[in-house]
Amino acid sequence: GGLDNGKKIEMHKKYQPQDTVFYEIQGANHGQFADYGPQPGDKPAKISQFEQFEITARVTAGFLKQFQQ
Question: Domain extents for the chain?
Answer without folding.
Answer: 1-6+35-69
